[in-house]
Amino acid sequence: MMNISSRQRHILEILLREPEGITVGKIAEEVQVSSRTVHRELKELEKLIKRYDLIMEKKAGMGLLIQGKKEKREELKQALFESTPIEYTPAERKTFILCTLLESAEPVKIISLAHDLKVTPATISNDLDQLDEWVKQFHLELIRRRGYGIEISGSEASKRKAISALIFENMEESQLLGLLKENIQNKSLQTMNTASERLLNLIPKEKLVAIENALRHLSDLLPYPLADSAYIGLVIHLSLAMERMAKGEKIAIEPNYLKELEHTPEFQAAKQIVAQMESYFGISFPKDEIGYVTMHLRGAKLRLSQTGVLEDPNAELTAIATNLIHICEDKLGVNLSEDRSLLQDLIAHLEPAIHRMKQNMKIRNPLLDKIKEDYPDLFQVVKQAATMAFPRLKVPDEEIGYLVMHIGSSLERTLRAKKRFRVLIVCSSGIGSSKLLASRLQSAIPDIQVQRNASVFELDDIDDHEYDFIISTIPIPSKNPGDYLIVSPMLTKRDIEKIHSFLKGYTPSSDVKKSQAPPADSLDQLESIHSALGHAIQLMKDFHLLKIENQGMSLEEILFQACETLECLGVISQSEPVVQQLLEREKLGGLGIPDTKLGLFHCRSDHVTRLSLTLYSLSEPFPLKSMDEGTIEIDKILLMLSPASAPKEAIKILSEISALLIEPKTRRILETDDAAIIQQYFTQSLYRFCFEKMDDKEWSG
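Structure for Mannitol operon transcriptional antiterminator, as requested:
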C-alpha cells in the first residue's frame, strides 16, 4: 500500500495528468502552497516513483514530467488510485464534513467527525466556522448545540442545491462525464481524490449509469438539446431525488407556481422522464418532484441545432438580444449587428438565463475568474450593457461571464482568415465557451479552420473524415490521448505553443469533395464503388479480436489454432492448406512489423470462402522475423485472408488495411485490445478510402 500525504497525492496526480510537463509554479498554484513546499514534496515523490522504474525529469520550457514506460505509469496510477492518504487537506476535511451533514437525518457529534478525519475537535470546530458562510448561500443554517450535535437545517430544495453545488465544486465535469459514458471503462475515475470518492456516496455510480440509460431518448422529449453540463446536472438531480425520497425527504413547490409550470412543454417532458424513472426503478414521484425536474429543464442552457436555426423563435427575446448587441456596439465602437451567429447565440442563451434570474436560481461559471482576469475591460462593458438591457433584473457576474464569451467571440470572429487545418472543437461549458475558443484559435493560428463545435455526447455521431484532428477543453474518455490536444477554453500562450509544435509535424488530409464531375465510365465506376463498399462492410461485420493461449506453441501450432477458429466460423473450408500457405509466405520474408509487437500474416487461397480480418492476442510474446530482416517479439497477429478469386476491389480493401499499419495511430489503436474501438477505426478508415477514390479510374480499370 502506498503511504503518502494528501498533498503528495495531489501533486502526483497533477504530474500524471500532464504528460507534456508542468512548471513548479503552476503545481503550487493548483495545490495552493508555496513553490518551496512543492520542491520539498517532490524530493519524496522522486524516491517513490523510482520504485516503479520511473524518473522525474525537468525540461526547459516545459517544466517537470514523469518519464518511463507506459505500463509503469499505469501501474503507478493504479497504486495511487488504491492508496489512502494518511492525512486530509483542509479542503478535503470540509468536503467530508459537508457530505456527512447533508446526508445525515440526525445531528452528528463533533467528536465523531474528529475521529473519522483523524484531527482534534478544535480543528473540526474551526472548519465549521469557515463552512457557516458556504451553507448560508443556499438559505441553510448550520446548527451547533452542546450536547445536541451539529446539523444543517433548511428546506429539501435548498439541501439538494447545496449537494449539487458541492459535487460540481469538487469533481471535474470530465469525471462526471466519465461516469455517464458506458464505453470509457471508468478511466476518468483513476485519479479521483478521496473527497471525490466520498461525494460518490451521495450519488452512487450504479444509479447514475441506470438513470443515464433511462434517459437515452431524452432528446426526443425536448424541443431543444441540452448542453453537457445541463445533462449532467439533470442526471445528478434525478439521482439525488431518488436517494432523498428513499429517506423520506420531499420537495415542496409553491402551488400557484406549480400550476404555471404545468402549462409548459418542459413539464410534459418532465412527466415522460419521470414515468420512465418510475418504470425503471419501481418508485413513485409526487407532482412537486415533477415540477422540480421541470424547473431544471427550463433553467438548462440551450444549444443550437446543427443547422444553426432556433426552433420556435421568440420575438421578445430577439428584441432583447438585439438591444444588448446595440448597446455593446455603442460602447465598443465595433459593428456587431451583421454577425448573425452572435444574435442566434444570444437568443439561445438568454431564454434560460432570464428564467434563472427571475427565479433567483444560482448558476456556476467555472471560467468566471479567468474571464475577469483576461478580459477586464470587456467584462465591465458587458456588465454595463446588461444593466441597461435588463433594468428589472439582477444579473449576476456568472451570467455576465457567459455574455462576455458570446460578445468576445463575435469581436474576434472578424480576424478570421482562410485556414488549412480542419479542426473539431470539443467543449462542455455551453455555446459561448466553444465559440470563443474557436475564434481565439483562428485568430491566433491562421492555418486552422474550425469545422464544427461539438460536445462529448455528439462525438459518436460525427464522421472522422469531417476533420483533421480534435482540440478539446476536457479529456475525452472514448479517445486515445494521442488522438487530440487538450487546451484551456481561454487558449493560453502555452496552449498556442503546443498547437504550433503539433502542426509542424502534421500533414493535413484533403477535404472530401461533396460534388464531383462524374467520369466518362460512370456506371462502371459506380459498380466498382458499390463492390468495394460491400467488401468493406462484410469485412468489418466479420472482424474479430480473439485470444490464443500460446504457451510452448510453435508458429505452426499458433496458426493452426487461429485457422481452426475461422473454420468454425465458416471463413475457411480447410485449415491445413491455409496454414501451409501462411508458413510458406513467412519463409519468403519476415512478417513482423518493425518497431511494433505485431505480426501481419496474409494469403489468398481457394480454401478461404470470404474476406476476413482477425486480430489475435497472444498470451505470451513470440519471436518472429521482421520485415527489416531482424527479429521482434510479437504479442499480436493480424490475419488477413482472401479467396483466390477475389475481385480487385476486395484486394484494394485489404491493401488499404496493410497500408494503415505503418501509421502510429493504427498501432496505438491496436494496442487498446478493445474490439469495438479497433473495428470503428478500421471502418472509418475504409469509409474515407472508398470515397476519396471515387474519381480514381483505377477502380473501374
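The chain is about 55% helix and 10% strand.
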